[in-house]
Write a structure and sequence with these properties.
Elements: H1 5-14, E1 27-28, H2 31-40, E2 48-52, H3 58-66, E3 69-74, H4 77-86, E4 93-97, E5 110-114, H5 120-130, E6 135-141, H6 142-148, H7 159-167, E7 168-176, E8 181-182, E9 189-196, H8 206-216, H9 224-234, H10 241-248, H11 264-279
Parallel strand pairs: 2-3, 2-5, 3-4, 5-6
Antiparallel strand pairs: 1-8, 6-9, 7-9
Amino acid sequence: MFLSEQRIKSRLRKYGVRPSRKAGQNFLKDSRVANSMVNAAHLNRDDRVLEIGGGLGTITRWIAKAAGETWVVEIERGLVKALRDALKNYKEVHIIHGNFLEIDLPPANKIVSNLPYNISSKTIFRILEEMEIDEAVLMFQKEFAERLDAEPSNRAFSRLTLNVQYHAEVEYLETVPAEKFYPVPAVDSAIVRITPQSREVKAKDYVVFKWLLRGIYLFPKKQVGKALKMWLQNLGENPTLAGTMLAEVEPEIDETRRLRSITLEELIALSDILTNRIDEGILEGPEE
C-alpha cells in the first residue's frame, strides 16, 4: 500500500499540522516499509511495543495488528488527535501526548519507530541507558545509521559508534530512499535493528568510560597517543601518563595508531586503567 502525498497533505490539513523540517518531521508514504520494520522486530502477542513519533499512524497500524499492547508517543497536538481517530478501534493502543525525552517510560520490551531526526542521538541513549528491551527496529538518517554500524578505521567510526556498541549490537537492515517520505528530506534514511550487547566485558566504571571517550574524541583525526596527551593536558594532568597507560593495555596499544582504529574492547581496557589511576589518587576523576 502506498499512501499518496495528496492524502497525507489532506490529513495534515484536517488536523492543522504543518510539517516542520526543524523538528525532523517526515511522514512515511510507503506502507511496505512500515510492514518490513514490524516484521524485522519479530512481533507477537506477548510483545509490548513502544513507537516514538507516531505521526499519522502508518507504522502504528502494523504494530497494533501484531503486538499485544502498544504505546505511541507523539509531541504534536494535531497528530495526537489524528492518531486517536485512526486507531480508535485498537483497544490495546495507548497514545501518549508528550516528549519522549521527558515522559515516564512505558513497560515496553520492543520498539519500532521512524525517529524524528532532530532527537535521534538523545533518543537512542535514553533507550539504551534507561530501558530493558529485547529488540528495537529504528529508522534514522542514513548517515547516522552508518555511524551506529561502523567498524574501526572506517570514516564513520566515532564516539557515537562506541557509545552505542558498548550497549548494543547493531545491524543495518535497509536503505529507504528520500522519496518514500513527505516532505521529501534532503537525505536517504536507513533501518537498523538493535539488540542488547552480549559481550561480557564491561568497564569498571561506565562514567569514566564515557568521560574518556568524550575527551579523546575531541581529536578524532589524531593518533591515539597524541589525542590522549592533549586531553590530559587540557585537564591539567601530566601528559606523559598517556604513554604509560597505553603500554599497560594487553596487548599494548601503539601510540601511533589512529584513534579511529582503536577498538571498543581496547578502549574499555584503557578506561579501566584510567579508573585505577583515579582510585590510586594519581588522577582526578570526572566531576559528578
